[in-house]
């Protein structure tokens, strides 16, 4: 399935010419490869960009759905060099999301996946889990501006059990994670996917994205009943062989197998239900 790529606009300022050049080349790369990602090309384009903050970058994810990206954040850089953030991943989830179904965006950040899926699948619903208060505020504001009434913002982390957990306080919200040891942190509530699902009357879940900086196995354990009943397609961040093995250890007993897909970045994995293990 092919979704329209977001349109990125680069504002004036230092480095704008270099940023526009990288964006133009990234668009050519995406067209020539049919959306397949070549990491060496992305690395070259990243070196073309200014070393510090970018100029203002605004992403039009769909008609009427505009999001301003943090010029100093990883999301802005990744979006420019790939002509859209993790677009192959978004397309994989869109294929699975049917009318009346539910997409769970666990680790929604400011809402790129949430808004793309909500806009391009308006007959489906989205739950966006984001625990950090400031980031959740930006997410909710983006949802309001886009007029998406099929999105529910869940202001909590998803885990294997309810409670609270401290998160590190980072300048770039893309790298916020559960705190380990000393350092600035904010305490956030934790829920489970299964608990939220029960409270909502157990709606059909078609697709799930989990990107939570290393806590992916815990999120999946807290979603066992959803996964066993509905067998949604899963997109999970797995940066390295160890992360892949940890996720596979959770999912394999439930009948899930990894599905290779050329358009995904190497740190993401797609899993689908293959039958009783």
Which SSEs are present, and which pair or pack?
Elements: E1 7-10, H1 16-33, H2 39-48, E2 57-62, E3 65-69, H3 74-81, H4 87-96, E4 102-106, H5 112-120, E5 125-129, H6 133-146, E6 151-154, E7 157-158, E8 163-168, E9 185-191, H7 193-199, E10 205-210, H8 216-221, H9 224-230, E11 233-237, H10 241-251, E12 256-258, E13 268-273
Parallel strand pairs: 4-5, 4-10, 5-6, 7-9, 10-11
Antiparallel strand pairs: 1-2, 2-3, 8-9, 11-13, 12-13
Helix pairs in contact: 1-2
How would you describe what is shown here?
This protein folds into 2 domains: 7-81, no CATH class; 87-273, Rossmann fold. The relative contact order is 0.12. The chain has a 7-stranded mixed sheet, with helices on both faces. The protein has a 3-stranded antiparallel sheet with strand order 1-2-3. It contains 10 helices and 13 strands. It starts with 6 loop residues before the first strand and ends with a strand. By secondary structure, the chain is of the alpha/beta class. The longest helix has 18 residues, at 16-33. Helix 6 (133-146) links the parallel strand 5 (125-129) and strand 6. Helix content is 36%, strand content 23%.
Summed up, the domain count is 2
Q: What's the total number of strands?
A: 13
Neighbour order of strands in the largest sheet: 6-5-4-10-11-13-12
CA gyration radius, whole angstroms: 18 Å
Count up the helices.
Answer: 10
In what range is the share of β-strand residues? Answer: 15-25%
SSE ordering: EHHEEHHEHEHEEEEHEHHEHEE
* Shape assignment: globular
